[in-house]
Every structure is written in structure tokens, then in C-alpha cells.
Specification:
The protein has helices at about 10-20, 25-30, 35-50, 65-90, 105-120, 140, 175-180, 230-235, 245-255, 285-295, and strands spanning about 55, 60, 95-100, 125-130, 145-150, 160-165, 165-170, 195, 205-210, 215-220, 225, 240-245, 260, 265, 270-275, 305. The longest helix is centred in the N-terminal third of the chain and has 26 residues, at about 65-90. Helix 1 (about 10-20) crosses helix 4 (about 65-90). The chain is of the alpha+beta class. A hairpin with a 4-residue loop joins strand 9 and strand 10 (about 215-220). The chain folds into three domains: about 10-85, Winged helix-like DNA-binding domain superfamily/Winged helix DNA-binding domain (Arc Repressor Mutant, subunit A), CATH 1.10.10.10; about 90-160 and about 270-305, 3-Layer(aba) Sandwich (D-Maltodextrin-Binding Protein, domain 2); about 165-270, D-Maltodextrin-Binding Protein, domain 2, CATH 3.40.190. Strands 4-3-5-15-6-16 form a six-stranded mixed β-sheet, covered by helices on one side. A three-stranded antiparallel β-sheet has the order 12-7-13. The relative contact order is 0.15. One of its GO terms (molecular function) is DNA binding. Keywords: DNA-binding, Transcription, Transcription regulation. NodD regulates the expression of the nodABCFE genes which encode other nodulation proteins. NodD is also a negative regulator of its own expression. Binds flavonoids as inducers.
């Protein structure tokens, strides 16, 4: 093979290095050695006749020529992928990889099962499901679709609203038997609260009354966690009262392992959105997964139309 040939494989390596700015991370992602990625970049630069990347010991950035070439490569790779999708559509079988990022607890308890069902319907589609509560850069991490709870900052990503996630106050029967059941929001100040350390302002609990009205009460306790599944375990262990998404505890409420507290009051619901990388939204398998998740997530307990 002519080493100066411009190949799709070399273009893909260049595009991912340009997006991630890290050769070793791209090597792991593509399942090859870092020396192979470096060689792809070097041979591609030799083929086009200009330097595309500037490398230092700490970072990799695009040159001005590299930025223009990157934009063209993205378009070329997108056209190649769509051509493959169209060819496969003649036999009605979408194939390839889709990468999803999802809030951790929601992904473990619900989205993972939806992914299984999607793959049962489309057995030739591979799914990479990444569970994290961090707000990652979708393009940089090579993610196609992300499910996010909470308000969103302005973004160039396509956004699809999936509704609102209803929240409730809950505690274990044993805790309530020992510490008493609060009858008014203000009484929560005398209880142990299980708080989320990764949510700002968790020391004040905001509640909305069923008949209207807004209440802000101090909310403290000896335990803070940064993961929804840890909060679920703390509730089961009788460590206190917590505001939680209904989908996180609906099975425990149904079996009586947890109970509603102050049923006439609830924390405000949280928006649930899907973010889609615009360049990936036209890919058949991505589009199928987006539609499938939008339809099935609406059936999860506590997810309500906005």
C-alpha cells in the first residue's frame, strides 16, 4: 500500500485525535497502539502536504490547516457512514455502534434494560453505554446520545425533551418508627436528611404543596453521598429521610420497604432531556435508538410529560 495514501482509517484517527486532544485516549478508544495512531497522523500529514496537528508533551491541538481539513473529514466520514446505512437498509438491518451516556443510577435501574430490548429488536446494532453523572463533552468523548437530568446550559447539541422526573420524600418504616413521622415541612429540620453532595444547595429543601405554596426548610444530616444508588441503600438502611426521584424507589415503595413522607408536599420535578450530536442525528441506527428511548422512557414510573 502506498504510505502516502489518504485512507478513511487515517481520517478517523485524525478526527478523533483532533476532538479529544489526546493520542493515548484515542488509541484506547480505537483499540490500537498509540504508535499506530501516531503513524496514521504522520502518514496523513505527508499525504496532504501540511501539518495538521501541533504536538507538545502535554497537549495536541489543530493547526489552522488542520481545522479546515478536520471539517472536510467530518463531512466525508458522515457521507461514508450514511452510504453504508442506506446500503444496509435494503435488507432492513441497521448495524454498527451507538454510544450513549446516561446519568448513572437512571442508567443502571432503567436505561440498561431498555438498551437490551433495543438490541433484541436490532441485533446487529452494538451499544456502548457509559454511566456518569458528570457533564461530559459529547463530541470529545465520541458519544452519540446523552440522557441528562436537570437544567441544561446552552449547547450546540440537538435537544429532545423527555418530560419531567417527579420527586418524592421517602424514608424507611424503621426510621419513622424510631424518629417519628413529620407532619409539617418545618419538622424536617429535626430529622436526619440524606443529602446529595454533588448538588449545590442541598442543605435547604424546597417543597411544593399539593394545594399550592412553596416551603424552604433547613435540611441537614450526618450522611452525604454523590450517587443515587448510594442514597437508595442509605434509605433502606434507615439512615434518614431523602428527596428522591420516583423511578429510583418506586419498587421499594410498592413493597413497603420505603414509605412516603409528607405526601401532600413534594420537591420540584427535574427536567429529563436527550442530547444528540447533530452530525450523528442522521445516522439510521442513532435515529432508531433516539426514537426507541423517547417512546419507552415515557413509561418509566415518575417520568411525566412536561
Amino acid at each position: 500500500m502506498d504510505r502516502s495514501e489518504v485512507s478513511l482509517e487515517r481520517m478517523r484517527s485524525f478526527v478523533r485525535v483532533a476532538e479529544r486532544g489526546n493520542l493515548s485516549a484515542v488509541a484506547r478508544e480505537l483499540g490500537m497502539g498509540q504508535s499506530s495512531v501516531t503513524r496514521h497522523i504522520r502518514e496523513l500529514e505527508h499525504a496532504v502536504g501540511v501539518p495538521l496537528l501541533t504536538r507538545t508533551t502535554r497537549s495536541v491541538t489543530m493547526t489552522e490547516e488542520g481545522r479546515r481539513y478536520y471539517a472536510d473529514c467530518v463531512q466525508i466520514l458522515r457521507l461514508v457512514e450514511r452510504a453504508g446505512d442506506e446500503a444496509r437498509s435494503t435488507r432492513g438491518a441497521p448495524a454498527g455502534m451507538v454510544r450513549i451516556s446516561c446519568t448513572a443510577a437512571f442508567g443502571v435501574l432503567h436505561v440498561s434494560r431498555l438498551v437490551f430490548a433495543f438490541q433484541d429488536r436490532y441485533p446487529d446494532v452494538s451499544v456502548d453505554l457509559s454511566l456518569t453523572d458528570e457533564r461530559i463533552d459529547l463530541v470529545r468523548e465520541g458519544v452519540d446520545v446523552a440522557l441528562r437530568l436537570g437544567p441544561l446550559a446552552e449547547s450546540s447539541m440537538k435537544r429532545k425533551s423527555l418530560g419531567q422526573s417527579r420527586r418524592v420524600l421517602v424514608a424507611a418504616p424503621g426510621y419513622l418508627a424510631e424518629r417519628g413521622r413529620p407532619a409539617r415541612p418545618q419538622e424536617l429540620a429535626h430529622h436526619q436528611g440524606i443529602r446529595m453532595s454533588n448538588i449545590a444547595g442541598s442543605d435547604v429543601l424546597v417543597l411544593q404543596g399539593r394545594r399550592g405554596g412553596r416551603h424552604e426548610v433547613p435540611f441537614a444530616g450526618r450522611l452525604r453521598v454523590d450517587h443515587g444508588l448510594a442514597a437508595r441503600e442509605a434509605l433502606l438502611a434507615g439512615r434518614g429521610i431523602a428527596p428522591t426521584h420516583l423511578w429510583l424507589v418506586d419498587d421499594l415503595l410498592a413493597t413497603g420497604k420505603l414509605e412516603r413522607v409528607l405526601a401532600d408536599y413534594s420537591p420540584p420535578p427535574v427536567p429529563l432531556n436527550m442530547l444528540i450530536v447533530p452530525e450523528r442525528s442522521g445516522v439510521a441506527r442513532v435515529r432508531l435508538l433516539v426514537d426507541f428511548l423517547a417512546e419507552t422512557i415515557a413509561r418509566i414510573p415518575g417520568i411525566e410529560k412536561a
